[in-house]
Amino acid sequence: xxxxxxxxxxxxxxxxxxxxxxxxxxEDFAAEEGIDAAFFMGLGAVKDAELLYYxxxxxxxxxxxxxxxxxxxxxxGNISWxxxxxxxxxxxVLSRKDGSAVAGHLDKATTFAGELYVREFDTKLExxxxxxxxxxxxxx
Length: 140
Ligand code: ZN
Description:
The chain has 140 residues and is mostly beta strands. 9% of the residues lie in helices and 59% in strands. It is globular.
């Protein structure tokens, strides 16, 4: 395992805006605050969600769309640079009224309500293409 010791920096709590994209709001916030590396967790609810499943054999993302109200129970992720933008890598567990759940890598979701905790790190993380997985990973 490769690793990097990081110092904690700023911490935030935030409320996500109704009707806006869940991940996009986190990326906009990171840009506004100049956050180059962070972890976050959040909870709330969304009106729909688009998850990406990474097929390890084909090395391609497959999209699954859920056009229904779902609880975000929870979202967890990190913020780092991907090419020329900040990217909020976000994984979620989403539950339905009957308690069943779907989970995965969140691409988009329309926020119903959301609360977020963000812990910034005093470093800059920038993703690079990884030959083995064909993913953009941290070059630690
Ligand atoms: Zn992912």
